[in-house]
Amino acid sequence: MFLALQIWLGQHLFGIIGNPGFPAGYRITPKRVIKWPCEEPELDGHQFATMNTDLPIPRIYRTHRWRGHLGIEMEYVPHCTTLQEGWHKLSRKYKQRIVDQLSKYIAQLRSLKPAPGSSGKVSATNGGACHDVRVGSAKPFGPFDDIAGFHRCLRGGVDLNATPEIFGDKVADVHARPYGIRFKHGDLGVQNILIRHGHIVAIIDWECSGWYPEYWEYTKAHYNSALLPEFYEMLRQRMPRYDDELAAERVLWRFFDQPLDVDYAQHKA
């Protein structure tokens, strides 16, 4: 009930953050915001990245429970805009500075190591079920004991031997390769990067974070690349590149995106 009152008062005093139909958060004081509803993987990823990197991540003050969902009370980052809103106003110098910043932050995330005994596992930060809008709009999935299991999920359960006929050789080739596991934010879209005066001041929304194949941050960064093609082209030059994997993912995006939302038999029909 206390959280409901805070949100109600915050809406009247400060308005909401983001789209009125799908709020990104609620300011409750001049310096604090609550994101609700959330799930545990977002809290775990947010805290893990905060403790193990120097990325600019809003400080968490406390958590709440209301109507069966988690609420995260965190630092409000003032006088900033999303990269999506601010990119076209930046000079070339500041655009390059932001890309350089972000590439260093991605390198830090990639350097993190999973817990002993789980190095080959695809999972959320805490080892539990994953969440990623690329795989399904709402349903958790996994965890997977290995990358092969994750790839099978991306194919909607289609066996690797049948993949060339159904999805083509690009997907079959990439899904047969070995990969390392890396930590990822998982949704480094331009809407989740906050900037001020030509610098990144916050990276938000860690609900898709976790341990995934090493190429996943690269391919996911292109998932909504039509929003700002110039930014993604510049970023591509600074990240470890996985162009074969991106080509394979684009095949799946085109023919079988979000496999948890529809099984292959339904999709084929």
From TrEMBL:
Residues 178-237 form the Aminoglycoside phosphotransferase domain. This is Aminoglycoside phosphotransferase domain-containing protein. Keywords: Signal. The keyword Heme does not apply. Gene3D superfamilies: 3.90.1200.10. The keyword Signal applies. It holds the Pfam family APH. Residues 1-18 form the signal peptide.
